[in-house]
Amino acid sequence: MILHLFLQKMVSALLGIFLSSLAVFVIIHCVPGDIVGQMLGQTSDPVATQALRAFFGLDRPVYEQFFDWLAQVAQGNLGVSWYQGRSVVSLILDAFSVTAELALLTLLIATLVGVPLGILAGICEGSRVDAVIQGFNLIGLSAPVFWVGLMLLVGVSATLGWSPPFAYASMTENLKDNLEIVLLPVLSLSLLQAAAYSHFVRECMVDQLRRDYVRALTAKGLSPTLIYFKHVLRNVLIPVVTFMGLILIQILGGTVIIESLFSLPGLGRLILSAIQGRDYPVVQGALLFVACIAISINLLIDLLYGLIDPRLRK
Amino acid sequence: MSLTQTWHGVMNSSLARWASVCLLCFFAAVIVMPELIAQQSPIALNPTRALQPPSMAHWFGTDDVGRDLFARVIYGTRVTLGLVAGALLISALLGSALGLMSGFAGGLIDMILSRLLDVILTFPPIIAGVVITGILGPGADHLVLALSLVYLPMFFRIARAGAISENNRTYVEASRSLGFSEGHILVKEVTPNVLPVILTQYVILFPLALQIESALGFLGLGVAPPTPDWGSILEQGKNFILNAWWISLWPGLFLLASSLAVMVLGRSLQERLGKG
Questions:
Q1: Does A268 touch chain B (CB under 8 A)?
Q2: In this complex, is the C-beta atom of A8 within 8 Å of any C-beta atom belonging to chain B?
Q3: Does residue A118 contact residue A199 with C-beta atoms inside 8 Å?
Q4: Cβ distance of A142 and B207 shorter than 8 Å
Q5: H-run or E-run covering A89
Q6: CA dist list (Å): A240 to A252, A297, B110
Q7: CA of B162, closest CA in chain A: separation in Å?
Q8: Distance set, CA A47 to CA A36, A213, A278, B11 (Å)
Q9: Residue A148, C-beta contacts closer than 8 angstroms, at least 6 positions apart
Q10: Shortest CA distance from A252: residue in chain B
Q11: Is B56 exposed, middle or buried (0-12, 13-18, 19+ CB in 10 A)?
Q12: Is A254 on the interface with B (CB under 8 A)?
């Protein structure tokens, strides 16, 4: 049953990836302005334009270019960046290592802060503690990530006289610099995601605590601690795992802005600069990669769901 | 549940909700008559008073070319909230119409439409927004197009689900047996019942769309200067963040307040809908 469901989801995921690649390809090729125009600027010489278009393969029909690209993708080749001359795969992997670090650290902090807050708010429903946590959730969900980043930057520089190093250093190059650089971006992203987590966990807790089984356990004389941590939390875990997937995809989106603000060479910046420079192989490759990541996270969550909840394995 | 009941539900609630309604009224007033609140011009340059901190003459300070930030943020309310409201309205109308028809018709049309719109959902909304505005270039029209496209599938899904569930109800069956046409049943009978869900979805998506709109503005993909827009003011303030923090503070606070107000309203509507 699970295998059948998995295969069905895989087929629909592949179709989704194919259609999204096609959509991006069509949009990007139908809009006026390409790399040739950008390279030659205002003084476009028809002969040079023609030659450059032929060099980049832009003179061929769009469908031909698309199927050529698709054939290359099937062989694991995403092409070469028109600007940097490097393979798109290596560009994406380099950028993804930055984004993945941001995303995983954010997920970690958001889970560590958001889940306990949500549980606490759920248990104390209607109390002052609940009101304060709900206030935090609302503010966290309403504050734009990049604005939080800007304010953090002002705040730490005004109060502590500290500002993050300018040049990006990877984890392997210099761990201290790396952590200093990612600190503020991760904190800004975490505020939103911790609030989202906390709100979601609270709703789940409140919903579970109203169920009959909780009343039965209370009537049986079980201590509240045992009811919360042994029985209720296990049921809350299922939707929370699904939500983790959603959060990860959201973080992936959120990094686009935060990377641009803090000048981090991540996936978001790669996509943005490639779109602005009309570097088609990088745009296509990076978006394909993002789509694959988003779809894989969803698939993984579906599988995890089956593992956590035995009722779904049947 | 009718729309009147939904509204009564909102009005019967706590202080936070009242505060949200007051804030929304404030924003509505600012949108309708910004010139009454901000006396100075939002676009008049005056380099002699550039980067001045908040004072009695300039409540929110001035930007790098000496424009009054209070006026820019106040006039920016109309631009930012107007763009988001308009873009979401387009996607609500188009998405719901497509969703209702698709869910009601079922079969091949439903399958094709669902698959096509799922393509947009493959990407996180902000990435989809960056791709569309990045390729088409900055400008208010492209921003509206991007936002409406990004949120179209969400309205489509909710309207489609509503139409499918209503399609199985007895009243639809009764209308069919009375001889009403499918179009009549869809427009006159089914749509009014799905409308509260769509309206709630509009309010719930509003803060999210607002965040995307300002993020795109912040990335330089929003409305063209010198039109005041909260995201664009934030983008401009980014370069002066350490010596002129006020440029970034105010538009962010306005964004926060408007998102908060709409979010509280959305929650109330959602709760009412759950109870109804």
A1: yes
A2: no
A3: yes
A4: yes
A5: helix A88-123
A6: 18, 14, 31
A7: 23
A8: 12, 78, 21, 69
A9: A187, A188, A191, A192
A10: B124
A11: exposed
A12: yes
CB burial of B223-234 (b: ≥16 within 10 Å; e: otherwise) equals: beeeebbbbbbb
> For residue A22, what is the nearest residue in chain B, using CA coordinates?
B119
Report which listed range, A16-20, A34-38, A39-43, B249-253, is most confident.
Answer: B249-253
Separation CA B104–CA B183 (nearest Å): 10
> Over the stretch A127-153, which tens digit does the pLDDT of each residue have?
889 999 999 999 999 999 999 999 999
In chain A, whose CA is at the least distance from the CA of B129? Answer: A253
Task: Select the residue of A153, A157, A275 nearest B131 (Cβ to Cβ).
Answer: A275
Q: Give the Cα separation of B247 and B249 in Å (integer).
A: 6
Q: How does pLDDT run across A33-88, given as a tens digit for each residue?
A: 777 777 777 666 788 788 877 888 788 888 888 888 989 888 888 889 988 889 99
Q: Give this complex's ipTM.
A: 0.89
pTM of the full structure: 0.90
| Residue A280 pLDDT > 70 | yes
Q: What is the DSSP string of B133-191?
A: HHHH-SSHHHHHHHHHHHHHHHHHHHHHHHHHHHHTSHHHHHHHHTT--HHHIIIIIIH
Which chain B residues have any C-beta within 8 angstroms of a chain A C-beta?
A: 115-116, 118-119, 122-127, 130-132, 134-137, 207, 211, 214-215, 218-219, 234, 237-238, 241-242, 245, 248-249, 251-252, 255-257, 259-260, 263-264
Report yes or no: B207 and B259 within 8 Å, Cβ to Cβ.
Answer: yes
Question: Using CA atoms, how far apart are residues B261 and B249, in angstroms rounded to an integer?
Answer: 18
DSSP-based three-state secondary structure for B62: strand
Gap between the Cα atoms of B185 and B166, Å rounded? 11
Alpha helices (H) along chain B: 3-11, 15-32, 34-37, 69-105, 107-121, 125-136, 140-167, 170-177, 182-184, 191-218, 230-238, 246-275
- Residue B152 Cα, gap to closest chain A Cα (Å): 16
Distance from CA of A36 to the nearest CA of B (A): 15
B-chain residues near A257 (CB < 8 A): 126, 215, 218-219
SS3 A80: strand
The A residues from 71 to 90 touching B (CB cutoff 8 Å) are: none
Indicate if the alpha-carbon torsion angle B55, B59, B62, B66 is positive or negative: negative
Flag whether residue A285 sits within 8 Å of chain B, measured between CB atoms.
no
For A251, nearest residue in chain B (alpha carbons): B124
Tokens 């169920």, residue located: A211
DSSP assignment letter at A171:
T
Chain A residues within an 8 Å CB radius of B119: 16, 19-20, 23
